[in-house]
């Protein structure tokens, strides 16, 4: 993986959404999505193909590089180009780096 990120590499605007639990008037629990940040990212697309029930299936995933966000977790979602992805992992590029990479998987729907 690259350890040097140039500012020009961050060319796609993405939205980071926080997923939290809310409690309704009857005490029911539901998930609420709140848009938290709009940031610039370097987007790398991955297509994983495999056989499932004897059919060729493709799973779309992304790896994005962004500036570190202090409260970011794997419960968050990322919207890239109008499509929503769930965060699978968050990896720092290095201990001193201002950037991190997120592995994302498309949410069906």
Structure, briefly:
With 109 residues, this protein is an all-beta fold. Helix content is 0%, strand content 65%. It has a 6-stranded antiparallel barrel with strand order 1-2-3-6-5-4.
Salient structural properties:
single chain, 109 residues, mainly beta
Strand order across the biggest sheet? 1-2-3-6-5-4
Distance between the terminal alpha carbons, to the nearest Å? 31 Å
The count of DSSP E runs of length 2 or more, i.e. the number of strands, is 6
The radius of gyration over CA amounts to: 16 Å
Quick one: overall form?
Answer: flat
Indicate the structural class: mainly beta
How large a portion of the residues is in β-strands, by DSSP E?
over 45%
Order of helices and strands: EEEEEE
Q: Characterize the biggest β-sheet.
A: 6 strands, antiparallel, barrel
Helical coverage, percent range: under 10%
Average pLDDT over all residues: 86
The number of helical elements comes to 0
Low-confidence stretches: none
Layout of SSEs?
Elements: E1 12-23, E2 29-52, E3 55-67, E4 77-80, E5 83-92, E6 99-106
Structure write-up:
With 109 residues, the chain is mostly beta strands. It is built from no helices and 6 strands. It has strands at residues 12-23, 29-52, 55-67, 77-80, 83-92, 99-106. The two termini are 31 Å apart.
